[in-house]
Specification:
- The chain is α+β, with helices and mostly antiparallel strands.
- About 50% of the residues lie in helices and about 15% in strands.
- It has nine helices and eight strands.
- It is elongated, with a radius of gyration of 35 Å.
Length: about 325
Amino acid sequence: MQDMLRDIGEQMRTLFWPDRYFAWQTLLLLSLFSLLTATALETLSAEEEPFQVELLSTLSWIFLVSAIWWALSENPVRVGGFSISPWITGAVLCLFLFEPWSTADRLRWSISSWPLISTTIKALPYFVNWELEAKLPKSHDRSALLMTLLINLLLTSWILFCFRVQDWVSNYPSLLVSDLDRSAFVTDFNADRNQQPQGVPLLESTADAIAEELNGQPWYQTERWLYTRQERLEAISQRTVNSFSAPAEKSFWRIEVPPIKRSGDGYLLKLQAQWLGPVSRDRRFFLEKDCKIVPQDRLRPVPTEADQPPPTSQITAVDCGEEPPVVQWTGDP
């Protein structure tokens, strides 16, 4: 066991200890030394972010990126005969430049820029030699460099498109109501997703507001309310959309009220939430909820003669049911 550990230690020392001063191991050791010094200063310093710590941290990253680039240039990592060393170096350089762990936007910039930064690292030796003298790549290298650039431009475009789709889904969650199975660009990896469109809380809140406003009101006032229902419902829906969990969707939802129908002594009010935004097919979808508005007799608390029946008045009762509205599609499937 001791011999094995001794052999491993000897191999590590041979790998990371430079046999000459001008070597990638020297840069790696300088990176570690700068990092340890910055850590010690940060521990001992009373300031939150002293300049010395920032400087040493930056130097540590520069030494690390240079060491990795130099080491992989001498010992390239190949996959199927193709060297991926520039992309490894590019990933480390993106970590240094963008600090993707700090914010989501920096993470996106880091991932999106990685292919093009890696292409630049791959192409740099063809344009600049070790003496920092400019040169032009040879004719047989130009086509390979151009093809690499085009492939990485395509990869960057797909990465940016992926983030764009995530933004769309985040800002407009009702888009996931559409079926994406026939899309050539977008795939929903969560096949069991049960996405609730924003029209559901819109209709539920509207129905609750109607019930709160009309329940217990005199019947004649309710009939007057139904006569001007469109204006009243627009005011209610405007208050509701302003409280959406996805505020960007509020301009794509509209409350529609078809002509009311008589239902016994009362009325049947159908509420429709129409989605005006983009969908993945030619048809459009809407959600619908029924509210029954009926009169009820209520005894009036007034004194009467003993042989006279107590007077009654009609008040309003609203029943919109407990079932949530479901998505319905217009037109032929």
